[in-house]
Design brief:
It is a single chain. The chain has 357 residues and is α/β, with parallel strands linked by helices. The protein is 28% helix and 22% strand. It folds into 2 domains: 8-52, no CATH class; 57-338, TIM Barrel (Alpha-Beta Barrel), CATH 3.20.20.70. The protein contains 10 helices and 19 strands. Strand 14 (234-241), helix 9 (249-262) and strand 15 (268-272) form a beta-alpha-beta unit. The structure holds iron/sulfur cluster.
Length: 357
């Protein structure tokens, strides 16, 4: 693959005194001195300007079923082009994509005096060049109608996503963020019209867990969910259920109650954990825990709760919240039957919220 080393100036930042910059791409709002990178490791200050070091650099590109994001109420049964780069503004110990989300941070820590060039050289060795136009060409070649910015946190590389979507929108292609929920007002303004759907991780309902295990703040994520909801972007929420960390009735009730307070029709995905990265001392989530989480979600008033990562459980399906008829049948990531009629239950005609086009 062809590789180039050209720096792309970021849009989401402000210049400060003494060649410092303030990044506005996520709720950390890092102040970054000259020669350094921000907490996510992929936005760096050179000579008083902020650069997005992963612009046009793809670390992972796949064609996935849209259900894998997971999105169950948005263009079901279609393929989506999924793109990821490097870096993250979270530091989750259970990260399942840590090879791309965390390694630039490890590289940066090796030599604090030279972090800018170390990170650039790592990104260039591990990625391939994929300019925005080529992403859209890939979609057209494979007749794909949506692009997911995923695998690592997309808000921190919004300038790349923005330019891809600028081209993609000309072809009627939809944009999706799969996010940990640290989007700023600046990012949402910048991406307006380019993000059609978002899946936000709500990883726990405890500030302590967010602080110790994810190195971030729960309150910021809750704020983002409230800020995004009702703004014309389809939203679904995912919680990876980790035994003994976030699987108590109390915690699951807290999450479900919060989602219901924002909007009862937001689908909630409760998915199974497997040991990964720094969290290898906890077992896989048993199916009965996902079923319990499902029941708690429904008890708290949510209309759509889905189990994930364990194919074959009955709550992979969409049921009509009014008459309980099975509407969309799935197995794992595959839609096996879709009985939806013009966005409504085929039996009782209840409207099922989502973007089904
Ligand atoms: S995107 Fe990165 S540099 Fe910008 S505020 Fe967030 S962590 Fe800091």
């Amino acid at each position: 693959m062809q590789k180039t080393v050209s720096l792309h100036e970021a849009k989401l930042y402000e210049k400060l005194e003494e060649k410092k910059v303030k990044c506005t791409a996520c709720k950390w709002y890092c102040t970054i001195p000259e020669g350094k990178t921000g907490l996510c490791s992929i936005r760096g200050n050179k000579d008083g300007k902020l650069y997005l070091l992963v612009y046009g650099k793809a670390a992972a590109v796949h064609i996935d079923p849209i259900e894998k994001k997971p999105l169950f109420h948005f263009m079901p049964g279609t393929d989506i082009l999924s793109i990821g780069t490097y870096g993250c503004n979270f530091g989750c110990e259970f990260c399942q994509n840590w090879e791309i989300s965390q390694t630039t941070k490890h590289e940066k820590m090796k030599d604090m005096s030279n972090q800018f060039s170390n990170v650039i050289s790592m990104i260039n060795n591990g990625s391939h060049d994929l300019p925005p136009k080529e992403v859209v060409e890939l979609c057209e070649r494979h007749r794909i109608k949506s692009i997911a910015f995923t695998y690592n946190e997309p808000s921190i590389w919004s300038e790349y996503a923005h330019d891809i979507m600028k081209e993609a929108k000309k072809k009627g292609i939809k944009g999706i963020y799969v996010s940990s929920g640290y989007e700023t007002k600046e990012v949402m303004d910048y991406m307006r019209g380019f993000i059609d759907a978002i899946n936000i991780d709500l990883k726990a309902f405890s500030e302590e867990t967010y602080r110790k295990v994810c190195k971030t703040r729960l309150s910021c994520v809750l704020d983002t969910i409230k800020e995004v909801s009702g703004k014309g972007i389809w939203i679904e929420i995912t919680t990876l259920i980790i035994p003994t960390l976030n699987d108590s009735d109390e915690e699951l009730e807290g999450i479900a109650k919060f989602i219901a307070s924002v909007d009862k029709s937001i689908p909630w995905h409760v998915t199974s954990f497997h040991p990964d990265y720094k969290m290898r001392d906890k077992p896989n989530t048993p199916p009965k825990t996902l079923m319990r989480a499902h029941d708690i979600g429904k008890k708290m008033g949510l209309k759509y709760v889905y189990t994930g990562n364990i194919p074959g459980l009955k709550y992979e399906n969409t049921y009509c919240p009014a008459c309980k008829e099975t509407i969309i049948m799935r197995h794992g990531m595959s839609v096996t039957e879709n009985r939806l009629k013009e966005g409504k239950c085929p039996l009782c005609k209840e409207r099922i919220e989502g973007e089904w086009g």
